[in-house]
Amino acid sequence: MEEIVSPTVFISYAHDTVAHEERVLELSDKLLSRYINSNCDQYVEDGNPERGWPNWMEENIRVSDFVLVVASERFLERFEGRAKAGTGLGAKWESTLTANEIYQNDSVNKKYIPVVFDSADKKFIPTFLQPFTYYNLSTEDDFALLLKRLKGELKNRKPKMGTPHLVKKSDIGSLLEKKTTTEGNSNTLPEIPQFTNDMKPGMKILQAFFVLPISNRFKIASDLNLVEIGETIEANNVDEISGRFLIRAKERNMLADLWSKLFDENIDPNPFKS
Hints:
Shape: rod-shaped
Helix content: 40-55%
CATH topology of the largest domain: Rossmann fold
Radius of gyration: 32 Å
Number of strands: 5
Distance between the termini: 77 Å
Number of domains: 2
CATH architecture of the largest domain: 3-Layer(aba) Sandwich
Largest sheet: 5 strands, parallel
CATH class of the largest domain: Alpha Beta
């Protein structure tokens, strides 16, 4: 049977109030019940680590896979040096160790995770942790996400980019022939009088352009700066948009460029080149 390895987590926090300490203990117990090896100072027997608190804190931070930093007003005061001298030494020491490791790691951080018990406490997240994702543990959704992160179960949702279907210029003729055979004739092509009227090669361009996959039409239009704001490949009227591309090419005197994109000029000389 494969051995299950539980991530080790240390909880860093300030002793604000008895209620706050109880919430920290409840969090740690809850993590333990979810197979997360959680640790906090409240588990220390007799409240007296053998090697002293500074060594105990430093060792737990060093050996843990993750450190949950519980943001609170008192924690922030102690990190920023605004607390009364001689008070909150533990939070001061742990926050200094945390900030120093992120600094030494060239500001790269995957280990230290800010958490809050209330959305209002977000403003108390120390500056060195503000660039990173935080979790509001008053919501079940955020707690579930935190568990997945600790267990390494968060996955990249971005799908792989598909391979574009490219058509060689030399293949357009055979594709046109295939399209005509399949559909009976070329009358299924859209009627774009603004493009075809008074222009003999217009129908040839129209046929070649519309036989292309939609992604290729947009690629050509993008290369020629014919795409305008709001025109996307996901639109429901892509054929209408494709027609606009042709009209713009004519209006902007870019038919020679469009022809070069569609045809092999060694076989089909460009009629728009002077």
